[in-house]
């Protein structure tokens, strides 16, 4: 689904954009405090994959900490590094939960987030807390067990020396028996692994899918100047014919295999595949909406809602098909919303993963104007003026140079 | 001072080709406030003996508001008619004082066959100063004034031109103060996307007032802009707060023309 749009040009510039914006989180840093918190979570997530790999290899081969012996001190360093990042990620997650639920930041408590989106956000954060707690339960108990010679890693007393668990373990688990510790260690191991699988299955249904789609979405970014609005090729053909004095007005149109398309977009299938990818990449952070001049002055428009509506409608079409009597424009996005846009590109500028809500808004306007002739009445006058006298106001084209003769 | 405004057709009749076309735009041609910006720019061009011409009655709307209002037909009709005129005169380079015309001519005409080097008037003026054609040595017109620059969306975010207008203001004997939201974070004046030609949708505030408050916060004496529509919106905003005796809204071209005593 989704109309064609070519985003295969300039591959090196695309890789660079992806590297800076997705991998390097460049645009996040327009708000440094949140960016640092997010960076802690992101880097912990990426680095923890090493430990997850070990958990999986251990699980399949029946080993315990299979990399420990071969890597030696490097192992201790790697796990310590993961632990430090995990603590930071834990703190970040708590702050994120507080921002949503206690401090009730306006951006994170707007009406479009009521219900499922709010639950989704909290669920993800809670899952992250559980993942981190499981890791520390596993490492902390194992650290105590090793100290008593009860760890499966060796049959002697020893010490891992992990940065956090080496003091966290004894602090929390010291009073427990070896048997209890072993059970807890297994709970940590299974808990983390189970949570990872739950997380992976949940991801496609969640706004959290951005952790994967941020990469392709930034790779396929719009690399043109933000002010450039896409050209409608079908219209170009028509206008060229109209302006060609040699064109035969009675000529039969050339047969074409192309399926006739709507002008602009009424529903999700009228949008480009990049618009749809944008919708799936959106994590509903609301930076777009908080920067939107229309939204800030109380208008109905919220660029984040445009993206959420697009995704919701797409999910609905995925289940019930397009012919359900509903459409994106009308049932999800209202005309009032799209006519409030000033096309200022603040939403596009703000988006940390290069989503372009403006192109959807313009396509919805195109449908309304060109298919249904529906627009605010003043715009009808403006368009008539342009067509009649070449200016949005009613001034004669022949008077365009009058200013040069007028006294200032 | 008499303005010297040659048209392309006059030039052609004399067998001359101007170096650059000055695209005046609808606001610059018809809006009483914007006409003053147009004249200020012409004074600068005349003073620096820039070999330019305008299209005059052959100019027409670029189609920017039509495209943004969703009417692609009207936009493309305008664009193709304009391209025919421009190509007929073999125009290579265009300067304009309107960021909307600037964006459309620069970014949207190439796909329809119109390829020109398009610059904003602040970029041209910067070039005139850098090459020594225009001197602001010892200017004192704005001595002790605070000037803040409002970034037009179609110049800034849309086309990444942030420095040229600021570089010009810094040439003046005045202090450039930034609003809390500036450059990439600049707040729209409320006119773009064809909003200039319609009432705003229902809300609790006008966008131009929100933006004017940003400007008032800086305690600037002058709000500088580089767009005729931003100029209208900010001027209305200043009037709304009854500050028209304390704050004036001026285009960067007007600042420069005044400072150079043209």
What does this structure look like?
The complex is a heterodimer of chains A (408) and B (262). With 408 residues, chain A is mostly helical. Chain A is elongated. Chain A has 2 domains: 180 residues, no CATH class; 126 residues, Orthogonal Bundle (Fumarate Reductase Iron-sulfur Protein, Chain B, domain 2). In chain A, 60% of the residues lie in helices and 0% in strands. Chain A contains 18 helices and no strands. By secondary structure, chain B is of the alpha/beta class. The N and C termini of chain B lie close together (9 Å). At the A-B interface, α9, α12, α16, α17 and α18 of A face α2, α3, α4, α5 and α6 of B.
Task: List its salient traits.
heterodimer, A: mainly alpha, Fumarate Reductase Iron-sulfur Protein, Chain B, domain 2, 18 helices, 60% helix, elongated, B: 262 residues, alpha/beta, Rossmann fold, 2 domains, 4-stranded parallel sheet, 8 strands
What is the gyration radius of chain B calculated from CA atoms?
Answer: 18 Å
Distance between the termini of chain B: 9 Å
Tell me roughly what share of residues is in helical segments of chain B: 40-55%
Provide the gyration radius of chain A in Å: 28 Å
Task: Determine the oligomeric state from the structure.
Answer: heterodimer
User: What would the CATH topology of the largest domain in chain B be?
Assistant: Rossmann fold
What are the low-pLDDT stretches of chain A, counting only 5+ consecutive residues below 50?
Answer: none
Q: Give the class of chain A from helix and strand content and strand pairing.
A: mainly alpha
Tell me how many strands of chain B there are.
8
Describe the SSE topology.
The complex is a heterodimer of chains A (408) and B (262).
Chain A: H1 11-23, H2 32-61, H3 67-71, H4 73-101, H5 116-147, H6 165-173, H7 178-202, H8 210-219, H9 233-243, H10 273-281, H11 287-291, H12 293-296, H13 303-320, H14 328-332, H15 335-339, H16 346-350, H17 357-372, H18 377-389
Helix pairs in contact in A: 1-8, 2-4, 4-5, 5-6, 5-7, 8-10, 10-13, 13-17
Chain B: H1 8-13, E1 20-23, H2 25-30, H3 32-47, E2 52-53, H4 64-68, H5 72-88, E3 93-96, H6 99-108, E4 117-120, H7 121-130, E5 145-149, H8 163-170, E6 174-177, H9 207-217, E7 222-225, H10 228-240, E8 248-251, H11 252-259
Parallel strand pairs in B: 1-2, 1-3, 3-4, 5-6, 5-7, 7-8
Helix pairs in contact in B: 3-11, 7-8, 9-10
